[in-house]
Amino acid sequence: MRLSIRHWIVIWYTIWMVLLIVLVFAGIFSGSSYLVERRTKASVIDAVNDAINEIEYDNGWLDFDDVDFRRGGAYIALYDKQGFRIAGNVPEEVPYSGFSDGILRTLSSRGSKWYIYDTRLSFNETDSVWVRGIIGSYDMQAVVSSMQGVLLIAMPLVVLIAALGGFLIVRRSFRPINRMIRTAEEISSGNDLSKRIGCQKGSSELYKAAASFDRMMDRIETSFEKEKQFTSDASHELRTPISVILAASSYGLSHTDDKNAKETFGVISHQAERMSLLVSELLYIARADKGTIKLEKDDIDLSELMDMVVETMEEKASEKNISIHTASDDNVIVSADRDMIMRVLINLVSNAITYGRENGNIWVSISRDADNAIITVRDDGIGISEEHINRIWDRFYQVDGSRSAGNGSGLGLSIVKEIATLHNGSVSVDSEKGKGSTFMVEIPIK
Ligand code: ADP
User: Fold this and answer.
1) Is the CB of 174 under 6 A from ligand 1?
2) Atom of ligand 1 nearest to the CA of 381
3) How much is the average pLDDT of 385-413?
4) Strand (E) or helix (H) holding 240
5) 381 CB within 6 A, ligand 1
6) Which of 351, 361, 375, 407 is the best mutation target for the ligand 1 pocket, counting ligand atoms within 8 Å of the beta carbon and taking the most?
7) Which pTM was predicted?
8) 409 pocket-lining for ligand 1 (C-beta < 6 Å)
């Protein structure tokens, strides 16, 4: 599984946080247990020393009335030289043990630890007493277990809250990136340059990057708009001079008997017609890009339309001695823009003639399946090689040599695709070089 940067960040700092908490607790624990132990040891020694100060000896009489036998948690007891206790008390669980002067010892008994500190107090050559101080070692094990309890409940809670908080912050910070990705995807899939990330102002670098992205898109959109406007304006402007050239050349053609002049006017007229077609295609594309094309939908009978188009193309086909065969399912009615579907048929049949072979055939058919009407135009012409097949729908794309073969501009198929898309339909092609091509346009039946 591939994790996103967001998840890595959260996992990374959560691990460090757990380690840090464990280290801090361990540090606090070992530091405090050391201090507590030191204080415990010091207090038993102090208690013994205080007791010694309170003991008075007078001619064989021992006075220990002022001794505090329970001082600061320590037990104080006095023993005679034979080791019999003469005053004070000791905790029950601490067994009797021998004396060692001025040495702090530890003794474990019944699961608890004790510190024992003895001092021998000599009054003269013969008389002396032992002063014994006993104190329980502070039960650090209990502290550890209670801390463990706290740690086990509190740590997951703290880690959970911190991880959740961190995740939310990271998610928030990454929001511009997610939006950037979404916007870029929307722009590339829908071709809509007006999409923006549109994050509110923030000071993080990502917000700044998002704002820069938006500004960049503003500029790209503006320059695209200008380009579209230019294509549209230029095409409009070209229409009038082309009409004038067409009119003038046909006037010249009909008003001269000179063979050379007739030929020249013929060439001018032919090229002006090509230019006129190109300009109308450019205008169409400019309008499609601007989104200003309106479909004027009608219920149209596709086989009728096919017959009409084929009839108008017969003449062009006969120039290459190509036979056009038609076939149609009954009643294939679609709700579509008549002129546009006609344009689809004209473009496809005209291509089939242009790229068809002399004395060849073209099969045009209209059929339907459960959801779609299908226009199929098949030819047995030059075909299209695999390297080109995916690009023929691109604007201005022409397979090498096609420029000279036909009068086209490379816009015909892109317009066919555009029209199919406008009708929520699709296009496809199947072709083999040297054998022929089959073009299909599917349009949903309402
Ligand atoms: P053009 O104006 O060049 O015909 P199109 O967009 O209609 O432009 O077609 C693009 C290219 O696809 C053509 O230049 C041609 O190379 C190829 N093409 C289109 N139709 C056919 C066909 N029926 N047979 C072979 N090649 C074709």
Assistant:
1) no
2) 24
3) 82
4) helix 205-254
5) yes
6) 351
7) 0.59
8) yes
What is the pLDDT, as a whole number, of residue 406?
59
Q: Is residue 158 part of a domain?
A: no
Query: Could you tell me if residue 401 is inside a domain?
Result: yes
Instruction: State whether the beta carbon of 398 lies less than 6 angstroms from ligand 1.
Output: yes
Segment 293-322 shows an average pLDDT of: 93
- The DSSP code for 405 is H
Which tokens hold the place of 119?
């001092």
Residue 49 shares a structural domain with residue 97 = yes
**8 Å CB contact between 302 and 339:** no
E strands of 296-388, at which residues? Answer: 297-301, 323-328, 333-337, 361-368, 372-379
One domain for residues 10 and 117: yes
Token pair belonging to 186: 């929307």
CA dist., res. 324 & res. 364, Å (int): 7
Q: What CATH number is associated with residue 212?
A: 1.10.287.130
How many angstroms separate the CA atoms of 124 and 37, rounded? 35
**Percent of residues in the chain assigned helix, strand, coil, to nearest 5:** 55, 20, 25
Give the domain range for residue 256. Answer: 206-290
40 Cβ below 6 A of ligand 1? no
User: Is the pLDDT confidence value at 141 over 70?
Assistant: no
Total of domains in the chain: 3
Does 410 sit in the ligand 1 pocket, CB within 6 Å?
Answer: yes
Write down the mean pLDDT value for the chain: 88
- The C-alpha atoms of residue 416 and residue 285 are separated, in whole angstroms, by 11
Q: Which residue has the tokens 């994790």?
A: 3
Which residue, among 37, 65, 64, has the nearest Cα to 131 in the 3D structure? 64
